[in-house]
Amino acid sequence: MKSKLFILFILIQTIACSMFGQLTQGKIVYERKTNLYKKFKDDNVTDWIKERDKIKIDYFELLFNDSLSLFRPQESELKETMWWATEKNVVYQNFNIDSRFVIKKYGASR
Q1: The whole model's pTM is what?
Q2: Domain extents for the chain?
Q3: What is the dihedral of CA 33, 35, 39, 42, to 10 degrees?
Q4: How far is residue 110's CA from residue 108's CA, in Å, rounded to a whole number?
Q5: pLDDT in tens, 84-94
Q6: How many CB atoms lie within 10 A of CB 73?
Q7: Greater confidence, 65 or 77?
């Protein structure tokens, strides 16, 4: 009898946990590392990018709920030395109407 109750208890726990297994909203932080020597592939790249700056690290965040998502770069209070070397696009997505809006930054603006 005890083993049947134990099995029933495990079954109920499994069903209860699976009901709450999907996240419907949240925030995820991403780290992107870019090797600028490989990205620019120029023989003179070492003249204008120092060895200590060759790996550029950018941080992004994904904010989402069941109908919308926003993927954007995280703002940093630190002054970036190589801010121009990588793209930092923003993507809005609406799952209800199946649309996506991308903001691409070009040029020398911070």
Answers
A1: 0.63
A2: 23-103
A3: 160
A4: 7
A5: 666 778 889 99
A6: 17
A7: 65
